[in-house]
Structures are given as C-alpha cells and as structure tokens.
Amino acid sequence: MSDNLHPFRSHTCGELSRGHIGEKVRLSGWIHAKRDHGNLVFIDLRDEFGLTQCVIDISSSLFNSVETVRIESVITVTGKVVERSNETINPSIKTGHVEVHMEAVVVESSADVLPMLVAGDQEFGEDIRLRYRFLDLRRNQLHKNIQLRSKVISSIRRRMTDQGFLEVQTPILTASSPEGARDYLVPSRNHPGEFYALPQAPQQFKQLLMVSGFDKYFQIAPCFRDEDARADRSPGEFYQLDFEMAFVTQEDVFNAIEPVLAGVFLEFGGDHTVTKMPFPRIPYKEAMLKYGTDKPDLRNPLTIQDVTNSFRNGGFGLFAKIIDAGGIVRAIRVPGAGNQPRSFFDKLNDWARQEGGGGLGYIIFGEDGNTKGPIAKNLETEKISEIETKTGTKNGDAVFFVSGEVGEAERFSGLARERLCTELSLRSGGQFNFCWIVDYPMFELNEEAGKIEFSHNPFSMPQGGLDALQTQDPLDVMAYQYDIVCNGVELSSGAIRNHREDIMVKAFEIAGYDRSVVEEEFGGMLRAFRFGAPPHGGSAPGIDRIVMLLANEPNIREVIAFPMNQRAEDLLMGAPSKVDDSRLRELGLKLNLPKIKTSPNSV
C-alpha cells in the first residue's frame, strides 16, 4: 500500500463518526458478521474497540474475494467513510451513522470453519469453550469481563499505593507448609528427591516483610491450591489482593481496606448501592445463629432464631427427643408465607429431603388467627404463642423449623433461609452488601478424630494472648480473625497475626503439634520472631471473586482469561501432560501410578 496511511490501521473499528465522512481510512480486524445481498456485501469489522460496517458492490474487482472469505478471518480494509442513509443507521453502536466503502482489502489471516460462533448469544458447553478459549474470549461478554478485571486491578493498585502501601513480589517457588489445602509440588533438578511448593498464599513471606521493617505491603498475588472447583473457586490458581500492616489493631485493618473495596465497587458497580462505611461487624456466633452461615447474604431479609426452649418437653415428640439428645431447634419467620398454597409447603418438604434433611417443619399462622400444620396440631397452645411472640410473627405469616445436632441444624437452617428467600423472591436487588464476620473461635473439635484443630488460621493472635491459651478451654478461645463478605460471597479471610514465638508454640501445641514440628515447618518465621517482630495484621480479598460480583457472573471461570475445567485440566494447552522418561531421570523421579481397575468383561 503506497499511501501515507499506517499499513494496518489509521483508526480503530470503534472510532469513526460523522466527523470522518469523506476521509480515506484503513481498518484492521476480524469479520464479525457478513451479509450478502447479491449485488452488495456488508461486513461488520470488529476489533477490541468496536464494530464498523464496511460495504463493497459487485462492480469491484475485489467482490468475489470478499464474498468468499469466512467470518472471523482477519482483514485490512481501505476505503472512504460515507454517511449511512437514514433507514440504515444503527444507533446501538458508536459508528452506526457511517460506513466504509471498501477500495482495497487484504486478507491477513483466513479462518477455518468455526467450532463455535463468536457473534450472538448462543450457549456452548464448557469443553468446547475452554478448548477454543481464544475464540470464546472474542465473544462480547467474556471480552468485557476480562477488560473489567484489568480495570479493577489497576484501580485497586492505585488505591493501595495512594494509602502508602509498598508493592512487593514474594517467591513463587517456596517450601511446602500445612495451610489447609494440598500443595502443588515442583521437583528440584539440583536437589534430587526434594521439592519446591507453589505458594497457597504469601502468608509467611508477608509476615516476614513486617518483621523486616516494612510498614505496609501489598501485591496482586497468585496463589496455588490443589483443591476441587466450585462456582466461586477456580481449581489450581487464583489471585488475591494480599496486604499486611505493622503496628495495627483489627480496626486499623478494616479502616484501610474498606475504602479500597467500597471505592472499587462504587467505581465499577453501575447503579448498585454499596454498604456505607464502616461495614457492619457480626460476631461469628451471631452469624451462625441469625443466618446459619458465616457468609451471610444480607440482601436476604429473613433471619433465624433459636426456639429450642419452646419445644423442650413439648407435645411435638420428634423435636423434644432431639433436644433431649443435645440438639437444637431453629425457626425462620417468613412474612406473608402463610397465604401460600399447600403445594408450596409440600415442595419445600421435598427439597429438604433431597438435601438430606427429614423435611422442613412449619406452622401457618392464618389471617383468621388460627394455626395449621403438623407441628401446630401437636404442640401446646402456650408454646405456639411463645414462638409467635419470640419471632414477631403476625397473622398471615409462616414459621419454618429446623432441628438437629447444633452444627447440622445451623447449616441446614442457613440453606432453608436462602431457599425460602429465592422461592418467594425476597432478595433485594441492586445492592452490594458488605459485612465483617469477627470473633472466630481459635480452635474447633474434630469429632471424627477426637482432637482439637485450628478452626481458621494457625498464624492468628488469640484474644487474650498467652494467658487465654493457658487458662481457658481451647474451644472458648476466640481469635483476632475476620472474614469480609459481600452478597453471600466470602471475599477475604484475615487476622491480626501471632508475632510472638511463645504464643505460637503454645497454640500449635494445643492443636497437637510439638515444638519440633513447628521448628521444622515454620523455622524461618520463628527465627524472625526471635529478633523483634512488630504486632501486625492484614487480609487478602480475592480478585477473581470481586470481579465475578461486579460482572454479575455466577461462575468464576467467566472472569478468568484461561481457566481450568472442573477437573483441573487446561484443555487449550493440554495440561497436565505426561513427560518423557529422560525428563524424569533428570529429576530423579520414578512414577508409581495407581492401578486402573478393569471389569471382568474388559478385553
């Protein structure tokens, strides 16, 4: 091309307007759509910035080549910008008032027949989407999600830097540590039989940075955990805003990160409202009672109450027996649900059984003041009145009940609260509702193993310090641990850290680890604590989950450029993959694969 235009583009495909009419331009992009009208061929040319309609008529010598080129081929178009006629204006795109009359066309790269369409909203299966992720990423919504992710990370980085946080990168190849999930291991060529581990989180390194005299640290940190996929958790790897601060209390940490999160959600959340600062602080025990979970969705107006005493020694024998065995009864009042048809209650009972429960008990408080339901028929009138008063029930409401061992009843009442909210469309829209869950127990009892374990984060400072560990029942000790939750999604766990060797050794001793194990697993951090460690704390909100909420996507894969599937496979690149014997010998490794069971009829 001998003109003075750039060889590929003078403008982007989202740039042209009436102000460019009459100009000769050059555009490059993908053929998004093509319409053949016989004597005219229209092409919608797409790049990252938008679409431009290009047209060629049958009189052009290029007509046949343009007519046969496939969609998603990459072409360069040169031509004049002309105004569209009134009836062909497309107000839904920025370039909709103009089009380019093609004078020259270069096919930069021809596309094969597509395994999946890029244009349109047609749904495709996970396998094909991940195997051809480069095509999937061209699709409008996913492309926007990745752009949003970039903008969110840039905004977070700016907000953290403006607060005086120093960005520091911590190692990717490190030592294995027992942090709750399985490590990904990397064999060492120079040290046969020994392995690096990919970090589950930069936990120890960020604490060591505080010991090293840095006041505020952060990074957008990659983390690696060999765990199963969920809708809000990607297998293999994820990213978090990892940060730590020296000489801080729990409230100082909250005051530092709340403006960052609130600011990002206000910046990218459209017309959604965001919880005003300071975010609500909900103690763990209160969250488990009122919401049945430590990840409450506060858009759901329903709450749970304990009504165990109202059923104790009562006429409803099933619940009375459960209470005698140490169980509890929880109630969920649902305003107006008493007016629902019988089929509504039957459907909920079926759902409860599918979830592993015995059913979902209920009392209907009729508009006429009468009560209905199996529980109402068997429970004493004064006990029903007690429940009515305690739950604030009015005529026309219904109260649902869950009974069982404490942990199971809490879990199931949380599920029932969410199910009732969904069934009756009670959830508020247009909101990002944040809260902190605080005062987590330091330890919990593993009933199967019959031993005490860390419940949350082994590096946390117990409330009351060493004295609490020495004098209190371990199950009564609370920690300076906290989670931040938004719309029922846990964005982050954090804690004020244990910065003293004596407290750390005692905490691990209670959890069944003697000093030698602590020295072996966390020797680097213990050595650092012996040379002066400041009180410090931090948190690590998940980047993927933040973007998932802002993009209103139900699955985290929709905000990750190249995610794995649910089996932790990269279908695009073919990972994990086998390596040849020479590589294994170089690393001093020999495979010991599990035997594959075969059926008696297999050949």
Structural class: alpha+beta
Strand order of the largest sheet: 6-9-10-24-23-22-19-12
Q: Summarize the biggest pleated sheet.
A: 8 strands, mixed
* Count of distinct strands: 24
Outline: globular
Helix content: 25-40%
Helical stretch tally:
18
Mean pLDDT: 94
**Share in β-strands:** 15-25%
How far apart the termini lie comes to: 64 Å
Radius of gyration: 31 Å
Low-pLDDT segments, ≥5 res: none
Brief description of this entry?
By secondary structure, the protein is α+β, with helices and mostly antiparallel strands. It has 18 helices and 24 strands.
Describe the protein's architecture and organization.
With 603 residues, the chain is of the alpha+beta class. 30% of the residues lie in helices and 24% in strands. The protein has 18 helices and 24 strands. The strands form six sheets. It has an eight-stranded mixed beta sheet with strand order 6-9-10-24-23-22-19-12, sandwiched between helices. A five-stranded mixed β-barrel has the order 1-2-3-5-4. A hairpin with a 5-residue loop joins strand 15 and strand 16 (371-372). Helix 4 crosses helix 17 (543-550) and helix 5 crosses helix 16. The radius of gyration is 31 Å and the shape is globular. The N and C termini lie far apart (64 Å).
SSE blueprint and pairings:
Elements: E1 24-36, E2 40-47, E3 50-57, H1 63-68, E4 74-83, E5 98-109, H2 126-131, H3 133-136, H4 140-162, E6 166-167, E7 185-187, E8 195-197, H5 203-211, E9 216-225, E10 236-246, H6 250-268, E11 273-274, E12 281-283, H7 284-290, E13 304-306, H8 308-311, H9 317-324, E14 328-334, H10 342-354, E15 361-365, E16 371-372, H11 374-378, H12 381-391, E17 398-404, H13 406-423, E18 431-432, E19 434-438, E20 443-446, E21 451-454, H14 465-471, E22 481-486, E23 489-496, H15 501-510, H16 515-529, E24 536-539, H17 543-550, H18 581-586
Parallel strand pairs: 3-5, 6-9, 11-18, 12-19
Antiparallel strand pairs: 1-2, 1-4, 2-3, 4-5, 7-8, 9-10, 10-24, 13-14, 14-17, 15-16, 15-17, 19-22, 20-21, 22-23, 23-24
Helix pairs in contact: 4-6, 4-17, 5-16, 14-15, 15-16
